[in-house]
TrEMBL record:
GO biological processes: response to stress
The protein's name: Transcriptional regulator
Keyword presence, Transferase: no
Gene3D superfamilies cross-referenced by the UniProt entry: Winged helix-like DNA-binding domain superfamily/Winged helix DNA-binding domain
Taxonomy of the source species: Bacteria, Bacillati, Actinomycetota, Actinomycetes, Kitasatosporales
Record InterPro entries: HTH_MarR-typ, MarR/SlyA-like, Tscrpt_reg_MarR-type_CS, WH-like_DNA-bd_sf, WH_DNA-bd_sf
Organism: Streptomyces malaysiense
Keywords of the record: DNA-binding, Transcription, Transcription regulation
Gene Ontology MF terms: DNA binding; DNA-binding transcription factor activity
Length: 132
């Protein structure tokens, strides 16, 4: 394979990944929208639902932004919306009073439990179809 052919194949593979991501994101938003969530909302809930660390079931906002690939600003707006809906709560970080921790509320945990199977089904379908 020539260098140009290799480059074309590499670019085609990259564009295929981008297209799969876009299709999956749209399908997730469509499915989760029936529950009042978007894909980013669910990612935050899912992260918080699975966390069992040194601080219980809470993450610092910085830790969340590193894992869900949102800017601090976008994440702050998202967390604010989830907090207004009663799905998460913010609290002061005990070890650094400037820091903020975010944790699921019982309502947030219940919604996550309800929606998780639908989200996982979309991932299974899209990633199986997309890679096949």
């Amino acid at each position: 394979m020539t260098s140009t052919t290799q480059e074309r194949a590499l670019v085609a593979r990259w564009r295929g990944l981008l297209a799969l991501h876009a299709r999956t994101q749209c399908e997730l938003d469509r499915t989760l929208g029936a529950h009042g969530l978007c894909a980013s909302d669910f990612e935050v809930l899912d992260l918080l639902a699975g966390h069992r660390g040194p601080h219980g079931r809470a993450y610092r906002v910085q830790e969340i932004s590193e894992r869900v690939h949102l800017t601090q600003s976008a994440l702050s707006r998202l967390i604010g919306r989830l907090e207004r809906e009663g799905l998460v709560e913010r609290g002061v970080c005990a070890e650094d009073r400037r820091g903020v921790r975010v944790a699921l509320t019982p309502k947030g945990r219940a919604l996550h439990t309800e929606v998780r199977p639908a989200q996982r089904a979309v991932l299974a379908r899209m990633l199986t179809e997309g890679t096949g």
